[in-house]
Every structure is written in C-alpha cells, then in structure tokens.
Specification:
7 strands
C-alpha cells in the first residue's frame, strides 16, 4: 500500500482543475493520469494545518539521488511557472508528481527512459504555508 500524501484544500482544488483542463488537450496524458491517481489518494487538510515538512505547491525541496548521492534543490510549481534553468519544476513533470504531498524523509521513485530514479526528500527548504503565505 502506498503512503498517504497530504495536500492543502487550495492545492487540491487547483490541481483537480489543472488535470481536468489538461485532459481536454493533447500530450502528456500519462503524467496527467498519474497526477489524477495521486490526487485520489491525497488526504486534504486546511492550508494553516499542513505540516511544514510536507511538499506543497511552490515549495522548495532538497532531493538526494539514492544511487549517486548527489543532491539538488528544486521548486515545485504550476506548469505556467516552470523554468528548468531556475530549477522550477512543473507538477506535471514526473518528479513533481512524485513528490507532491510527500514529507521529509520519504523516498520516491518514478520511471524514466533509462529505468527508475529514486530520490529521498532530505528537506523542505521553503513551504509557502509554513511561512504564512496561503495565497501562492
């Protein structure tokens, strides 16, 4: 059984809308379906009750590659804000879908063309809700 993931009510509503919009359009269907599955298993909580160690939208996260030990910090964003060069990763990217709602210490894996990648969520370095920003 998969671990429960936690989403704020606001993130949940926005992501459901995004999934429904994207299902109408072409491309990225597998990622959209995967995000839809993640949303179904999410436990929804009020923005002011989400634990600070949970990855929410617009959170910055330190990830460690379990194979190489390399670390990278990314910010999980909505597709319109994605910018790979600024390490702003879309929720529709496999890593984005994998980490949303997870917490520090969780390990996530997802398929890539060369096999599977495993990351550990080392730290949520910034979470909008923890800093009192419920509008991001």
């Amino acid at each position: 059984m998969e671990n429960v993931i936690y989403l704020t009510e606001q993130d949940y509503k926005r992501l459901i809308e995004l999934v429904q919009q994207q299902r109408q359009g072409p491309g990225m269907q597998a990622n959209i379906a995967k995000l839809g599955e993640e949303l179904k298993r999410a436990k929804r909580v009020a923005s002011n009750e989400i634990p600070a160690e949970v990855v929410t939208m617009n959170s910055s996260v330190l990830l460690r590659d379990m194979k190489s030990g390399k670390e990278m910090e990314i910010t999980l964003v909505y597709p319109k804000d994605a910018d790979v060069n600024a390490r702003k990763i879309s929720i529709f990217a496999p890593v984005g879908t994998a980490i949303i709602g997870c917490k520090e210490g969780d390990e996530v894996e997802w398929p890539v063309p060369s096999g599977t990648i495993n990351y550990k969520i080392e730290k949520v370095t910034f979470q909008p809700e923890a800093s009192g920003n419920f509008a991001l």
